[in-house]
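Lab notebook: predicted structure, single chain.

Context: the supervisor wants predicted structures on file for every construct in the current expression panel, including those that have not yet been purified. This is the next one on the list. No modifications to the sequence; it matches the entry in the shared construct table.
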Amino acid sequence: MSKKEDHDNRRLREIRAALLPGLYRLKCDVPNPRPDRRRRDWEAGEIIEAGLTLAVTRRDKAGDLHRRIYTADDGREIDLVAEARKVDPHAYTELRIQPPGAGYALERLEITNRGSDRNVQIMEALAPYLEPIEETVGYVLRDTGMDGWRMVAVLNVLVDAGMITPAKLREAYELECARDAEEGDGE
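Prediction complete. Output recorded below exactly as produced.
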């Protein structure tokens, strides 16, 4: 491994360790180390503007490997992911930064094992200026992929744990319907 590759791998490990999954707000304007004037996405301009809310997520990419188990000359089977994670616990984990709800690949920065130089440089520039903010219900639903039947199951867990009651759930529903009706009348 060359010195540059070793340095790049160390930078990736530091970024992965610093950015835990969650919602963040950019505290100040950050000069973009790699602007792309051909695009108009949030990470393409000369300046990445303060106040931007970004979602940081991680996704296990080990399942995407074509060949995870390697058979050594002596017949031992070696799990490549397990061996890599002994050195870097986040190996084969995609780190993604994007505005919440952004779905297009162009709207997000990703790094897996060897991220593009541009993505790594932008993440490095942003990381010190990201402050964690409280997650919203909408973010949690999108991030977890919770929908329909799963939401009902989660609500049942909350009821079983005594955290909410069906009566409180009905009350919240009626309150939301009343708010919705008020907003509809004002238009």
